Amino acid sequence: MLDIKEYQAFFLDYLKTFIISKEPQNLYNPVNYILELGGKRLRPVLTLLTTELFNANYKEALDVALSVEIFHNFSLVHDDIIDDAPIRRGKPTVHEKWDLNTGVLSGDAMLIMAYQLFENYEPKTFLALAKLFSKTALEVCEGQQYDIDFETRDNVTIPEYLKMIEFKTAVLVGAAMKMGAIVAKAPKEDQDRIYEFGRLLGIAFQLQDDYLDAFGCPETFGKQIGGDIIENKKTFLYLKATAFLDDPERNKLQQLFSLNLKDNTDKIKTVKQFFIDSGAANATKKEIEIYTNRAFDTLETLSISEDKKQILRAFGKELMTRKV
Questions:
Q1: What is the per-residue pLDDT for 100?
Q2: Which stretches in the chain have pLDDT values below 50?
Q3: Could you give the domains of the chain?
Q4: Contacts of 41 (CB under 8 A, 6+ apart)
């Protein structure tokens, strides 16, 4: 097996073959732009790695890995439109660089491109991949809708929030790994177990993303720090803070999350202090650790060698302590 950086390098080389100049340029240039912006390439790397965990060559899964990455970036283009986000990976978002209509249409094209890549597999594999992709894509949309709904609700619970991030983020991580197992023709039980590992790791990953949105470094995180606070998003940090604070302090925090300001500097600073003082920041870090360890527990059920399990543990620990 290769190390993570090698999988990244091979995937990026393959991605370059996909990024070509096509007409109409105003449809395809934004697609190329978002795909070339960088990012962690977490999902395609997991697809390639999983394929080799089950004794197949990673090259067999390059089209699946590319599909996963294109779909992920499609979802980012549309998420940025919904959130009116100005920055993605330290650069202008697609709808900011072009316009709203171009962002919508280019995103739609990416969704179709992602599905097309399954056509490169034999019928039985195609069917399994397509079924998983359709299920996952719909769940991602459901997760996005939950996220939108929560912005106008004052009674969001932590279980509801965890379900939202499971659908919006974690199911795609699980699917990326299961797709690698499908290509490798792993036993059905192992396909389902590696999906569960990825799903749990994906929840931990999103909780870490929420934490970094408030407490990350702008230079390394690649997105606007405090974006969730500006948008009044009821993240795990916020929900834990409202649970821990006494009534007067909770009311102050809730009042801050009812404001839409032009200058959010003071709001971000004050909310972050509430997160720290209430214990919500530490509780979030603890929850990240819990989900990561639950993911590790599923490894014991996989019919792969201990050396391969250790590769997945190292990957999970790196995600748990990441800064980007």
A1: 96
A2: none
A3: 4-320 (1.10.600.10)
A4: 8, 11, 12, 69
DSSP 245: S
The single-letter code of the amino acid at 129 is L
Long-range contacts of 21-30 (CB under 8 A, 24+ apart): 26/98, 26/102, 27/102, 27/105, 27/106, 27/109, 28/106, 28/109, 30/77, 30/94, 30/97, 30/98, 30/102, 30/103, 30/106
Cβ neighbour number for residue 319 with a 10 Å cutoff = 19
d(CA 71, CA 65): 10
Gap between the Cα atoms of 82 and 296, Å rounded: 34
Distance CA 148, CA 159 (A): 16
**DSSP conformation class of 118:** G
Sequence letter at residue 159: P
Please state whether the predicted TM-score (pTM) of the whole model is above 0.85.
Answer: yes
